[in-house]
Amino acid sequence: MNPELLGIHWTEAMLRACWQGSLATLLAWLVCSTLLRRAAPGTRATIWWLASFKTLVAFAAGISIAVPILSADRSPLTNIQNRLDLLAPVVHGSRAVPISARGGPVKALIGNPTPAASVRSGIDFPTVVMVAWLIGSLGMAAWTTRQALLVRRLVMDARRLDDAPIGEEARRLGVALGLGTRPNIAESADVTAPLVVGLVRPTVLVPSHFTEDLSVDEVRMALAHELAHIRRRDLYVGVLPTICQILFFFFPPMWLSLRAWSLEREAACDAEALTATSGTPSGYSRMLMKIVTRDHKGGFAPALGATAGYHTLKKRLEMIMSFSRPGRLARFAAIAFVICGLMLSLPWQLSARAASYDEVNLLKNAGFESGSDLAYWNLGTLPPGATPPVTVTIDSGTSHSGKSSLKFQKTEQSYFPVQLCVQQIPFDPSQTKLRVKVWAKAESTAKATMAVMFASEQGKVEWGAYVGPTTPGGAPFTHDWKLYGAVLAIPAGTKAINIALEMYGPGTVWFDDVSASYVPGSTPLQAAITMAEDKTPTVEPDADIKDVSNVDSKAGKDPMKRYFLIGPNKAPQPAEGYKLLLVMPGGDGSADFNAFVRRISKFALPDGYVVAELVAPKWSDGQFEQLVWPTHKQRFIGMKFSTEDFVEAVVADVSKKVKVDPSKVFTLSWSSGGPAAYAVGLSHGSVKGSFIAMSIFHPDQLPPLFEAKGLPFYILHSPDDRLIPIAQAQSAADELKKAGGITKIVSYDGGHGWHGDIFGSIRQGVAWLEAPKQ
């Protein structure tokens, strides 16, 4: 076996990790025992964690963060390295031969050198060591995996206590600690001390008779300790130390740093628990002694809890008895040390500056060589949501270079709607100019462009390429591959830059070898064509939906229950009343989706519909990063009502304004709106059917699935969805059907998001919800 494993020279990587890890451990001990001795334990825990992080980074040879501060042509580091090379040995077989000042080998070998192949026989020592390390690491990984499976089994067999008094107490403590969601709590006869388990859905496991063995205050303090682990995300943070434990099982400094990190981590949770419960150090110490004394089964590797070994219990008790909150100056100093520690842990490496900005193409898949997949490019339209009569394909038979190109083809004699193929480039706010280039081939092309879209308050757009006549009545363009390009000034206030390949008028155009590069500010500007020269008719934004009624409304005059009443889309009113479609958008559920929902009303729905687009209420900062549409079971801090309540309020409010057919009330939701739509559909309220697209499905976060009996669920998902696997949709269809629901799952191409014939897909789903079910 070769010591060079997976491209990494194992011996060199391990030696580097050992000496750098030892140094990091020593520095962590010095800092924590002197400068940060009175800092919060959470700060010291972070410092010890960084020691493990540094060891792992040092082992990952070849990974570095370049700091381009050296000269592009000849850096001082290169000169130094060249001088060192003059003194470095050249290996001949097993013997090192020095290099003379001229770079030639010195005659240091007398007689015939031993051939390299005959120097050693058998397996060398580094290989033996590496094999032993592999065996030990695999053994540690197997042990850790077994522990994880045991923990998973514990959670599956545990009895949920979410609605029990201890569950309500855990919820109140979670609010006090700042948890964003309600904590899960369960009881298990297989544990003898409280534990936190589960990376995906953290759960507090408590022993049977837990509330009988401890006083009320002790139960609260123990729960607060476990919830502090969840708030601090200790299970996620602990993944890196676990990896280090597997890779460096033989390395004493690693065990010392992991032991110190574990102690400080537990002390940090002790401090948070004392603060959240207003407990006394003496009372907390008695509680901890009871738990440790009764824990005869020990902990599990993938679990965290208040239990401590006797070797660390004394230190924790001393920390608890001396508990005090650090002052403001101490907190600032601690933050500074953590930042310095993180910066020192990263693998910085001096490197030369790029010789030219123009050498770096910021676009990915610029030659469309990824087969039939438009990797990194996204299809779009102007106006948004329209369906242009344009065929977009990867043409593997035509190219400027490589094997393929992007082909647009349009036969209809019109300029709108416009088909776009867009990619956002990495944005650097320090840059002032951008060069764009594209090779294009045209065949009777009336107008195709490469647009550079500068996202800012002004929203400026400039042409990087213009393929077609620029004067009215000009003949369509036909030419072989031709290079188009421009150098454009980046407007002040730009926040993002998108490159869009566009097809306006009829004809066929191929694009290939697209590039976008930042260039120095001294580069002369070069315009492809000015907007004034473009004689193409313009289209007013949202002109296609100006005739759609759109009223900003509030259910029950509650400003948090905001919705848009859209339509009715056709008059007169049906005798039985209008059908009502309640829309819960994905993303942040904001009012920004209003134009898209109005187009749904106009282009996707049959006659006789009124639409209510709900706007997700924001209960606190950071909510939308975790939960957009809270429900009865998936709650969020500060919420005054659930999405189920919101929907019922909107139905009641709409019914006061127009007559609504109560048998034809449906929801349409996608992405982040999907989980709440499942909950609404199962709540047996006014909603009689649900259209849910590209959504996750977690039954444990929903009402009982037997509530689905007799209700229709139309589920739309893409097999190309990399954000939410289609298995989630299939699971929803299967589980709801088993529970007595009526389900239909439909797939589409394109990945996460609305793709293809959007309004046709929505029309088909709504028609299925309306149709009588057997």
Write a concise keyword list for the protein shown above:
774 residues; alpha+beta; eight-stranded mixed sheet; five-stranded mixed sheet
Write a brief structural summary.
With 774 residues, this protein is an alpha+beta fold. It is 34% helix and 23% strand.
Q: Can you offer a commentary on this structure?
A:
The chain has 774 residues and is α+β, with helices and mostly antiparallel strands. It has 18 helices and 29 strands. The strands form seven sheets. Strands 22-23-25-24-26-27-28-29 form an eight-stranded mixed beta sheet, with helices on both faces. Strands 6-7-9-8-10 form a five-stranded mixed beta sheet, sandwiched between helices. A five-stranded antiparallel beta sheet has the order 12-15-20-17-18, with no helix packed on it. Helix 1 packs antiparallel against helix 2, helix 2 crosses helix 9 and helix 2 runs parallel beside helix 13.
What's the structural blueprint in terms of helices and strands?
Elements: E1 4-5, E2 8-9, H1 10-35, H2 41-59, E3 65-70, H3 76-87, E4 90-92, E5 95-97, H4 125-157, E6 159-160, H5 165-177, E7 184-188, E8 195-197, E9 203-207, H6 210-213, H7 216-231, H8 234-237, H9 239-247, H10 252-277, H11 281-294, E10 303-305, H12 310-321, H13 328-345, E11 348-352, E12 378-382, E13 390-395, E14 405-410, E15 418-425, E16 433-445, E17 448-455, E18 461-467, E19 477-489, E20 496-503, E21 507-519, E22 550-554, E23 562-566, E24 578-584, H14 594-604, E25 609-614, H15 643-657, E26 660-670, H16 674-681, E27 689-693, E28 712-717, H17 726-738, E29 742-747, H18 758-770
Parallel strand pairs: 3-11, 7-9, 24-25, 24-26, 26-27, 27-28, 28-29
Antiparallel strand pairs: 1-2, 4-5, 6-7, 8-9, 8-10, 12-15, 13-14, 14-21, 15-20, 16-19, 16-21, 17-18, 17-20, 22-23, 23-25
